[in-house]
């Protein structure tokens, strides 16, 4: 008998019989949202928390989205931009960067060579400053938002903004590949020296797009 078998045997004996008992009820009397806000107030809170996390926040509407995205890509010096399936074509109508399609066969080296990626999102959470992606239309696969160094994410306001995590969870499908983003990728060592871009984009720009989906 191997060491692994002995350890697993001890665990089985120690936990025998526990599976038959019903799980205790979990109280869910916590607050679902902290405070009462207007849709505009919720958007302002989201913007404030995103900025605290060092994301760059921009606001525009349907008439200005193409010019704004073109400017952000130009300021970045982006020569190529990764475009996921389902991204509204008019968003990048004025961008001069070469479009690179999100292909299942593309490897990490190809994605790393892309200058920027532009995506939509599933929703955003104001109280935590979090953006959630679920690989839906306009978002693409998870890795396209983890490998390129510059991510521009468009959030529709107010359609895709909720106040809190408890409000967000029922709107998300747990079977989908969920990516929760709070600011650009960053980590700190034991001396608290912050390093950005370790396991995701070094620069996150969030565009709050006002108006209903077209």
Structure report:
This protein is an alpha/beta fold and 214 residues long. It has a single domain (34-210), classed as NagB/RpiA/CoA transferase-like (Rossmann fold, 3-Layer(aba) Sandwich). It is 22% helix and 24% strand. The strands form 3 sheets. A 6-stranded parallel β-sheet has the order 1-12-7-4-2-3, with helices on both faces. Strands 8-5-6-9 form a 4-stranded mixed β-sheet. A hairpin with a 5-residue loop joins strand 10 and strand 11. The protein is globular.
- CATH homologous superfamily - what is it? NagB/RpiA/CoA transferase-like
Q: What Rg do the Cα atoms give? A: 21 Å
Q: Any idea what the CATH architecture is? A: 3-Layer(aba) Sandwich
By helix and strand content, what is the structural category?
alpha/beta
Fold-level CATH name: Rossmann fold
Instruction: Please estimate the helix content.
Output: 10-25%
Low-pLDDT windows of residues:
none
Order of helices and strands: HHEHEEHEEEEEHEEEE
Instruction: Give the spatial strand order of the biggest sheet.
Output: 1-12-7-4-2-3
- What's the number of domains? 1
The overall strand count is 12
Which outline best applies? Answer: globular
Per DSSP, what share of the residues sits in E-state strands of 2 or more residues?
15-25%
Count helical runs. Answer: 5
Mean pLDDT: 90
Protein name: Lactate utilization protein C
Organism: Streptomyces vinaceus
InterPro entries: FTHF_cligase-like_sf, LUD_dom, NagB/RpiA_transferase-like
